[in-house]
Amino acid sequence: GTTANQSPVTGPGRTADGHRVLLQANIGSPEDIAAALAAGAEGVGLMRTEFCDSYAEVFQAFSGYRVTVRVFDAGSDKPLPGLSNAGEPNPALGVRGVRALQANPEILDAQLRAIADAATAAVAQVWVMAPMVAHEQEAAWFARRAASHGLTATGVMVEVPSAALTAREVLSHVEFASIGTNDLTQFTLAADRQVGALAHLQDPWHPAVLRLIAQVCLAGQALGRPIGVCGEAAADPRLACVLVGLGVTSLSMAPGAIADVRAELLRHSLDQCREMAKSILE
Ligand code: PEP
Ligand code: MG
User: Where are the transmembrane segments (predicted)?
Assistant: First the structure.
């Protein structure tokens, strides 16, 4: 946390030499709005909708900013009746995320319709993204489905290694990607994020995870697509600098983490961030 004798730094996210990095909030319910606004969040990088469908309220609160809505990510750690299958032998690898939506397209359509309706009335810029994408065809399917509701700012979460390794193909179908480092770490290290005994392996500093992130950033740069991070890694001030050095353009985190990340970014130039990234990758 911020120590009491430090005066808080405010304003948009940037490095010491002025390279802009969007600092956004993760929102899981309308109760998070006040904290996000108080922290000076530059919009919402991840609106989790599994337990929150107050689209209009969130869009209203972030008028003039971008709100990135993730459609239902059912299954495993987020069981949703009617969308996820109880009793799978390995729920983290089961019918979840975009897979569950492909099995129940009417549910995705209803959600996209509700988001589109709320977006029409809002001044916020509404982006939508699909969770747990593993294959470029899932990205293409989601983008078509969203466009049929007038939602054209479409993206994917990159949180499965196959999506990171094929980021160029995946990104060719959508406008942006947001890296979910919680699941990306879980799947890269084959360590269930819900098993406490494996917590030491849930480590986004692992070079394997960072090399995957570097690949996604290179693909984003090649195709001109912004690449965000919305997992816990974005909330670690030192790792946030490394992510910026890898080419990440926005960081989304719990509102309480924004102040420390903002302050740490201001202590390093973009070149210093790149140097940190380079040495960690090696
Ligand atoms: C992630 O996987 O990093 C992520 C942001 O999504 P969630 O934690 O909701 O799975
Ligand atoms: Mg995830």
Answer: none
